[in-house]
Design brief:
heterodimer, A: Rossmann fold, 6-stranded parallel beta sheet, 8 strands, globular, B: 309 residues, alpha/beta, Rossmann fold, 2 domains, 5-stranded mixed beta sheet, 35% helix, binds thiamine diphosphate, binds magnesium ion
């Protein structure tokens, strides 16, 4: 199985955190040791990789990937704004900085494959093709939302898009997705189940139980650990004894890869390999995607437990900018084309706000619908 | 399983071993390894696997070796199965059955003798079934499997040895949410479920010798609860004893009692009386175990009490 391991670009960062749990984003240097030389080298490698990859892909695919990443970025910025205005309630976890993960992975699968994720789910829904209108309306708690206003930000669902939801219990979606893979194998459909979760979910028993079953029963499931280095305010270093997440698969004899989550095409490539393994050999894979959560854990969280330097360091490696620069460099898109794409995205996001504003509230009687598929006589009266 | 390819049975020891209590005897032979699956001991994992499979069209029957172990899986039952249809705005139904023995067994002490129906009955989105006869078990299990919602199907270990007539008709089913009057009477009503139904029937026989006519109502499903049948019986007898194997505190008996109070207060000639398990973990010692559980003598005494005899 060792040939499946892709060597990390460099030994992974040990997240800061331990020493920086003070209030207020510290202006001081992070405890993290940032070697600018090494960083520049890594950045260059990443760019080079994208440049090579771009040559192998058609224009349409490349532009769609950029479009989706920009859409998620702008959508999340707009959602943050709407949240601040009190239009969106509850928990609202943004995906800014992680766009390359969902977009890269979902660009490599079939329409009839299944996708499931955690409460940080806006990006996956959008990348799966759920309209920005329906996602925004769901955040607004409106009847036109993709979950009819009953799920909210954390529970986006879209059956037609084979998007099986955002799930709110850390790690809870992992056994579910394993069951989806079980069903695909049972029915012999050749479908693959993809599931995304944060690195904090790796400490849950649900993950380990699922890995065991998936490898034991050879289920076509791809497990994506979006290692954004924080579970709420707790850095990976403070929560996990063995921090090399991709290694956890070894305990189950499962294939695993480590991939750079700032490089959308690297994520796409790794996903394609894992999906092929699932589809052709009916075997699961764990992919650890190193990424970074630019925002706080959820909207009200200012992220005070990190240094400004740490955040800025990661923003320098912004996946959206990296990819659009690469497309420009390779002549796939020029400034005008990118501006045009940005304009289209902006219009789509603006439209989603309008749609959400205008969408009606769920009718009061909806309180008691969808509790049961076969409601007992007199239920809800 | 004969009727629907999408139904499969998964749990610990269900296949090669034929079930820890031999409930799945012969199923592996008839349906093969694809549909009768031995699981590792991984309750949270396989409960969640079942719910996920149900999301995309299968109809899993997930066996817990006993419901005590379902406690490890409550996250997937309560947070996933019970909520999925709702929070997806009606897009993902979960046609799944979680089944296994619930309640007391024979001297297995505290961790293996719990009646957990009130836990699951608490949640809208779940259905909870507790048969008390072989025929009910057959008819209700088929309905549970055909139902499009998650059903908690609670059997009873002490009842696995009981024999009863079972209709042969392949189309025989019993709808969920319909109580059964196991014995008609006019002086007092006993509401019993699962193992306490045969106990209540024995108590009724004894009381008959004293000229007391007892009606025994078995709701058969706790959720949905056929409260109408219970209320009709109360309106007839005006006196109620509720018998259950679970603890009384926040139990199903408390719920039934509250509903009787809300709907038939004026019909009651005595306060509702509950016979439940002792408010203590189950002890191992045989004498203490007997003390902890409802029995015929306790039921007889309770009926006399509500009759002021
Ligand atoms: C079982 C459970 N425990 C605690 C929480 C509260 N909680 C929500 S998100 C979160 C952190 C999870 O971090 P991670 O898995 O890394 O995902 P990320 O938020 O970084 O995407 C916690 C503790 C929860 N939702 N579920
Ligand atoms: Mg995280």
């Amino acid at each position: 199985m060792s040939e499946l391991k892709v060597k990390p670009l460099k030994p992974r960062d040990q997240p800061a955190g331990q020493a920086t749990a003070a209030a207020g984003v510290a202006e001081t240097e992070s405890t993290e040791t940032v070697n600018p030389e090494e960083l520049r080298e890594e950045h260059a490698q990443r760019q080079q990789h994208q440049h090579q990859q771009i040559e192998e892909l058609d224009q349409e695919t490349l532009q769609k990937i950029l479009y989706q990443m920009v859409l998620i970025r702008r959508f999340e910025e707009k959602a943050a704004e709407a949240y601040t205005l009190g239009k969106i309630g509850g928990f609202c976890h943004l995906y800014i900085g992680q766009e390359a993960v969902a977009v890269g992975a979902l660009s490599a699968i079939r329409d009839d494959d299944y996708v499931m994720t955690s409460y940080r789910d806006h990006g996956h829904a959008l990348a799966r093709g759920t309209s920005a209108d329906e996602v925004m309306a769901e955040l607004y708690g409106k009847a036109g939302g993709c979950s009819a206003g009953k799920g909210g930000s954390m529970h986006l669902f879209d059956r037609d898009a084979h998007f099986l939801g955002g799930h709110g219990i850390v790690g809870g979606q992992i056994p579910l997705a394993t069951g989806v893979a079980f069903a695909a194998k049972y029915k012999g459909t050749g479908q693959v189940s993809l599931v995304f979760f944060g690195e904090a979910a790796v400490n849950q028993g649900a993950l380990h139980e699922s890995f065991n079953m998936a490898q034991l029963w050879k289920l076509p499931c791809v497990y994506f650990c979006e290692n954004n280095q924080y579970g709420m305010g707790t850095s990976l270093a403070r929560a996990m004894s063995l921090q090399d997440v991709s290694q956890k698969a070894h305990a189950y004899g499962m294939a695993s890869e480590f991939v750079d989550g700032m490089d959308v095409l690297a994520v796409r490539e790794a996903t394609a390999r894992a999906v092929a393994r699932a589809r052709d050999e009916s075997l699961p894979t764990l992919i650890e995607v190193r990424t970074y959560r630019v925002m706080g854990h959820s909207m009200p969280d200012p992220g005070n437990y990190r240094t400004r330097a740490e955040i800025e360091k990661h923003q320098e490696r912004d996946p959206v900018k990296l990819f659009s620069d690469s497309l420009k460099h390779k002549g796939v898109m020029d400034d005008a084309a990118i501006k045009e794409l940005e304009d289209r995205v902006r219009a789509e996001v603006e439209h989603s706000i309008k749609f959400a504003e205008e969408s009606p509230l769920p009718a009061p009687e909806e309180l008691y619908t969808n509790v049961y598929a076969n409601p007992p006589r007199g239920y809800g009266q | 399983m004969q009727r629907d390819e999408n139904v499969f049975l998964l749990g610990e020891e269900v296949a090669a071993y034929q079930g820890a209590y031999k409930v799945s005897k012969g199923l592996l032979e008839e349906f093969g390894e694809k549909r009768v699956i031995d699981s590792p001991i991984t309750e949270l994992g396989f409960a969640g696997l079942g719910v996920g499979a149900a999301m995309v069209g299968l109809r899993p029957v997930i066996e817990f070796m006993t419901f005590n172990f379902s406690i490890l899986a409550t996250d997937q039952i309560v947070n996933s199965a019970a909520k999925m249809l709702y929070m997806s705005g009606g897009q993902f139904k979960i046609p799944i059955v979680f089944r296994g023995p619930n309640g007391s067994a024979y001297q297995v002490s505290s961790q293996h003798s719990q009646a957990l129906e009130s836990w699951y009955a608490h949640f809208p989105g779940l259905k909870v079934v507790m048969p008390s006869t072989a025929a009910d078990a057959k008819g209700l299990l088929k309905s549970a499997i055909r139902d499009d919602d998650p059903v908690i199907f609670m059997e009873q270990e002490r009842m696995y040895g009981m024999k009863g007539e079972v209709p042969d008709d392949p189309d025989f089913t019993i709808p969920l949410g319909v109580a059964d009057i196991k014995r008609e009477g006019k002086d007092a009503t006993i509401v019993a479920r699962s193992l306490t139904v045969p106990l209540a029937l024995k108590a009724a026989e004894e009381l008959e010798k004293e000229g007391v006519s007892v009606e025994v109502v078995d709701p058969r499903t706790i959720r949905p609860l056929d409260i109408d049948t219970i209320i009709r019986s109360v309106q007839k007898t005006n006196r109620v004893v509720i018998v259950e194997e679970s603890h009384a505190f926040c139990g199903v008996g408390a719920e039934i009692s509250a509903q009787i109070m809300e709907r038939a207060f004026d019909y009651l000639d005595a306060p509702v009386k509950r016979i439940s398990s002792a408010d203590a973990p189950m002890p191992y010692a045989k004498n203490l175990e007997q003390l902890a559980l409802p029995d015929v003598a306790k039921i007889v005494a309770a009926v006399r009490e509500v009759l002021y005899l």
